[in-house]
């Protein structure tokens, strides 16, 4: 096309413009239009081309307003050398004082930018040459001082304590010292469209009604970002849902918008009230508050009305193929696809009245999806009462039909979903446009998966049924209720999602990365206490008082301003069995005959005087003497202890599965149930903990010194507390 106007030999500048047009233009219907302007030499610069491409992207409807287009792209605008000279003079005059002070160390790019702003369509090279010339005239040639590099301003270094805070979330808000989730989601970070500019998204289908519908949409929303988190209420949320919650609620929050919690309750057979409650509880536990809580069932009447309209428009039909017949990627076409509209309307009404049995009739939409699936089902017959609508309906809409229309009703701006829904994007756009209703934009992102676990509802149900785990909240699982029960703070889960980031590719992560996030948060949040898992009785024969002493223990040793708690110190204390050996090996630093040890926080050093054993030779008690730390020789180690303690049960958790991918037949040929770790739970029934925790409630968290981070389990009873170990104090190198 260009050669027909310019001849066979095209100059390099024109060739570059043509190449950039072909490479950057998303909709080829405007290609000939733009090439014409380049061939006629009416678009001469890349700046003009960028403006032209933005114009056609922003004006999807034909015909284009040629005069407005040419005005927006600088067509016919002629910038004279005199205009450039005057513009540069004005800019240099404005910055004259700084130029004379800083000379050639002044940021010349600032002069260039301001001159270009005054003359948008001027040639950049010509402006640069004029700036260089006028600066030289003002300052003269460069001196040796001008050639010296300008010293860089020293960057303030973060203190170690500040580095710890880089990604700690509080109530869904992240710190700003690093690339937080909110920073990842704010403004242009994801290249998402602005509200009302849906048509600028690649692949978005524009109809003659699109612009009017978008105008109505903006009038309703005021240009506000709107997202939604749409779980099915037939199971408990897991770690993958945490990413979806953070993404949907976080994107809205980062951009001053709102997020709906919408239950996709279109399958009454599998839905239970406990799932509705647990889902909302987990969303709020992660620190997010829904703008509104809605249900797909809120819109059943409207969805049914639209289904009738879809039939009237010839875009849907009642079909009698069985489920087995339409399964798979290449099912036979429906023999009822072209049945008369009136017939489908009558049959669909019969479906609603219950005249067809389950599986005898469906309503199908006339369209082909990306994956080749043809005519997806919109409605099916189910004689199951709905938890909210009772027995009003015996036909229920499918996800493919419901989801985009509910998004449309709620005026969602960004319908964010995981990558497996990409194959449904065309049906999403098609259905909204087929009904001439507002069409949101579907954006896909990569799922978050964890190794050494399963998260599918079906598989978790199998684990519960076989007794491998107790329930959905068993702390060895990675459901959100399980993570909460184990003691993971919500901030740690949000931080983990932020570190994974919002990626298009699926992310499969090691559990130890989540555990590292938990340690960071718990180190700041969990007050210290002392507990002994395998107690060994120790009697201090020269105890320095007639009654118990009180020892002050800092809640957070690194920051004593956060308070202290008192623990009793009696003549009888208990230490860990493993903190005593009858013979001290080389490198062993704890208690042994002839090797004293310090008691943490007590201010005393103890020395073994007598080892008492039972009939089998097992050590059951030590008799020791104590010396104040300030007069005793400094011991090699300090150990934790308890005195007048509370009895408690401690549950120690390891990975539930032995292999990274328990669902992979090549890794685990016998199936995931054959891969269970027999040591995933160790119960310590007779542990002891210091009395400072006596008033703790379920989910309260502590660091048991030298042992790890622990959380109070809801199984705790009066007189017998139960603690779950959340994570150890340090990562086990064997797990990394």
TrEMBL record:
Gene name, Swiss-Prot/TrEMBL: Qars
EC identifiers of the protein: 6.1.1.18
UniProt keyword ATP-binding, yes or no: yes
Source organism superkingdom: Eukaryota
Glutamyl/glutaminyl-tRNA synthetase class Ib catalytic domain sequence ranges: 224-523
Family: Belongs to the class-I aminoacyl-tRNA synthetase family.
Record GO biological process: glutaminyl-tRNA aminoacylation
PANTHER family given in the database record: GLUTAMINE--TRNA LIGASE, GLUTAMINE-TRNA LIGASE
CDD domains named in the record: GlnRS_core (cd00807)
Catalysed reaction, written as an equation: tRNA(Gln) + L-glutamine + ATP = L-glutaminyl-tRNA(Gln) + AMP + diphosphate
Domain tRNA synthetases class I (E and Q) anti-codon binding: 638-713
Glutamyl/glutaminyl-tRNA synthetase class Ib anti-codon binding domain mapped to chain residues: 526-626
Keywords per UniProt: Aminoacyl-tRNA synthetase, ATP-binding, Ligase, Nucleotide-binding, Protein biosynthesis
Domain Glutaminyl-tRNA synthetase class Ib non-specific RNA-binding: start-end pairs: 9-124, 127-215
Positions in coiled-coil regions: none
PROSITE patterns reported for this sequence: AA_TRNA_LIGASE_I (PS00178)
InterPro entries: aa-tRNA-synth_I_CS, Gln-tRNA-synth, Gln-tRNA-synth_Ib_RNA-bd_2, Gln-tRNA-synth_Ib_RNA-bd_N, Gln-tRNA-synth_Ib_RNA-bd_N_1, Gln-tRNA-synth_Ib_RNA-bd_N_2, Gln/Glu-tRNA_Ligase, Glu/Gln-tRNA-synth
Designated name of the protein: glutamine--tRNA ligase
NCBIfam families assigned: glnS
RNA-binding is among the record's keywords: no
A GO molecular-function descriptor: glutamine-tRNA ligase activity
CC per GO annotation: aminoacyl-tRNA synthetase multienzyme complex; cytosol
